[in-house]
Amino acid sequence: MLQLNELLDIFNEGKTLVMDEEAADACNYYSREAQKITCEINYTYHDFDEIRDLFSKLIGCKVSDDFRVFPPFFTDFGKNIHLGKNVFINAGCKFQDQGGIYIGDNVLIGHNVVLATLNHDENPAKRGNLKPSSIKIGNDVWIGSNATVLAGVTIGDGAIVAAGAVVTRDVAENTIVGGVPAKYIRDVKMD
Fold first, then answer.
1. pLDDT, tens digit, for every residue of 131-151?
2. Among 69, 72, 188, 78, which Cα is nearest to 140's?
3. Considering the entire predicted model, what is its pTM?
4. Which of 15, 127, 142, 152 has its CA 20 to 30 A from that of 44?
């Protein structure tokens, strides 16, 4: 079975993970580990300190004392989530983080947001292989409820993603995007 550091090297270098038996065993192992921790987060009441401790265990490093997540929260890996300070994740979010999710400081993530860092090959014979690409969310970003951010997207500092948007391309700093696929709406008002 692939070790965690080997798996992370493949994912973080953006290499395709060929889903052979060894890779499948590793992915299944870390998925079950994430499920155990998220079940504890989601189905037992915890105060914020307890949730922070569980989330730290999930991602493999300590989260800041101002981090908050409202359960339920779902991930199928957990080991490639990187959080800045003062991050808030609302209920029902789903993070597919194998390719890496990097969240800056003072970020607000609304209900039911999906962050998906994996793609698959178009060729049916290779479709089971995983093609990772990271999502990078800058500082002071607000992602509205039910938005989806796809693999390889960078969201610039101060940007807003409207509720229900599907973000397929990078978002410039201090802009608002919305729609399916998300398009530029206007600049953020700086009063």
1. 999 999 999 999 999 999 999
2. 188
3. 0.96
4. 142
| Distances in whole angstroms, Cα of residue 24 to Cα of each of 8, 82, 96, 99, 139 | 14, 24, 16, 16, 35
DSSP 179: T
DSSP reduced 3-state for 141: coil
DSSP designation for 15: -
**Can you name the residues that pair with 131 across neighbouring β-strands?**
119
8 A C-beta contact, residue 100 and residue 75: no
User: Tens digit of pLDDT for each residue in 84-127?
Assistant: 999 999 999 999 999 999 999 999 999 999 999 999 999 999 99
**Residue with the two structure tokens 């105060």:** 47
Catalytic residue positions? 120
What lies within 8 Å, CB to CB, of 103 at 6+ separation is 81, 82, 83, 84, 87, 109, 137
Looking at the DSSP bridge assignments, the partners of residue 160 are 142, 176
